[in-house]
Amino acid sequence: MTPVIALVGRPNVGKSTLFNQMTRSRDALVADFPGLTRDRKYGEGSYEGQRFIVIDTGGLTGDEQGLDLEMARQSMQAVEEADIVLFLVDGRAGLTAGDELIADQMRRSGKQAHLVVNKTDGQDPDIAAADFYSLGFESTFLIAASHNRGIRSMLEILLPSEEDREEEDRADRYPGIRIGVVGRPNVGKSTLVNRMFGEDRVVVFDMPGTTRDSVYVPYERQGKQYTLIDTAGVRRRKNVSEVVEKFSIIKTLQAIDDAHVVILVMDARQGLVDQDLHLIGFVLDAGRSLVIAVNKWDGMDPEDRAKVKEQVKRRLDFLDYADKHYISALHGSGVGVMYESVEACYDSAMAKWPTNRLTAILQDAVAQHQPPMVQGRRIKLRYAHQGGSNPPVIVVHGNQVDALPGSYKRYLENTFRKVLKVTGSPIRFEFRAGENPFASKVDRLTPRQKVKKDNDQKQGPSPKKKRQKSLKR
């Protein structure tokens, strides 16, 4: 579905300028006086392959009469049609009574509006936006529409990414929480699927390789929808010889991508082996939430159980955020409790956090432990926003972010995980340097400047510059 974005705000705050920048056109008239736009105007734009429709509207004041009242109706009609509402304010003029009236209208409309502080060029953006935070919007963007600054970052947050669009397609095919069950051959994956499903839905036999293809089983439990994915066992590469088994492994890796939460099943009587660690690596590389199920726990004596628990704790120390369950899929002990972990993992993987909250967490983390200095300059991390889900992606903007050491990135991950209470799901960070407003400008010399430059290079420095250089010495 193509998103529809409506631009609303007081007259002369830069709505038409932003409209032209987003559509890469000059369809909207722009002039330095209020009231130029009266009817709502539609345009089409695209960002990173995602198409969207923009609606430019006339200026609102909050107490319209006559012609202004009809213009206000047109603007509110655009708000009703829109999926995303951008409320523009003037960063130079500051907060006005009209802005407060329009903000109240946006709240009463029931639409989730985003505050956009325009005209921040030539001043400190944070100071320009300070007064507007009192309006109480969850997300605030600082832009300079006339210079095309900050618009790409804003669209990146507002528009669904390619991963989000793929997730919507998967949700249409497989409803509810998708749970992938993976592991080595003959560890009890199909037995666990049948136990979770409540009936013998997939074939179970005491022979490795019984399951050849990934089996998707939709069902409902306690009013909630789930889709269980039983997969073929994955052996070490040197042991894989049949062509069918090679395709089965590919299907298993695709099932991991399709899942929201992956349950890795391991055999308690064989202990944690290297192939289990390889499978965990596949799951983490795919960015999926993880639950560890140690199966065949029944019938083991206390000493062997203690050894297995110690091995899991020692070798999976890097997965301290993932829940571990010791179960018997055959008898059903411990299986029902796994649903709590699955739902907690799903909530963490699909969580949406406002930009203001992520930025506040980042600022608190930086205040508690500052980034190191690089070549005499302190690395600056300015703000953070969410860049995707399943896994959660947090995009951090700042200066010299390429020089940020791995230890500080791990510190940020641990801090965000603790504050946001993320369970079972990995968190990915992307660090981006700020936009350079002069990056697209080319320094072109006039013919007269070129001649002067050539003469200066031939003649060397002037006598005046030579005297200044000798005085400095």
From TrEMBL:
Q: Which InterPro entries match?
A: AAA+_ATPase, G_ENGA, GTP-bd, GTPase_Der, KH_dom-like, KH_dom-like_a/b, P-loop_NTPase, Small_GTP-bd
**Residues reported in the UniProt entry to bind GTP 2:** 183-190, 230-234, 295-298
Segments of this protein annotated with the region Disordered: 438-473
Q: Which residues participate in GTP 1 binding?
A: 9-16, 56-60, 118-121
Q: Which processes are annotated in GO (biological process)? A: ribosome biogenesis
Record's compositionally biased regions (Basic residues): 463-473
Q: Which Pfam families match?
A: KH_dom-like, MMR_HSR1
Q: Which UniProt keywords apply?
A: GTP-binding, Nucleotide-binding, Repeat, Ribosome biogenesis
Q: Output the Gene Ontology terms for molecular function.
A: GTP binding; ribosome binding
Q: Which domain of life is it from?
A: Bacteria
Give residue spans, biased composition: Basic and acidic residues: 441-457
Q: Where is the EngA-type G domain?
A: 3-166, 177-350
Q: Does the keyword Nucleotide-binding apply?
A: yes
Q: Which HAMAP family match?
A: GTPase_Der
**Complex and partners:** Associates with the 50S ribosomal subunit.
The UniProt entry, under NCBIfam families, shows: GTPase_EngA, small_GTP
Into which family does the record put it?
Belongs to the TRAFAC class TrmE-Era-EngA-EngB-Septin-like GTPase superfamily. EngA (Der) GTPase family.
Known role: GTPase that plays an essential role in the late steps of ribosome biogenesis.
Name of the protein this chain belongs to = GTPase Der
This protein's species is Marinobacter guineae
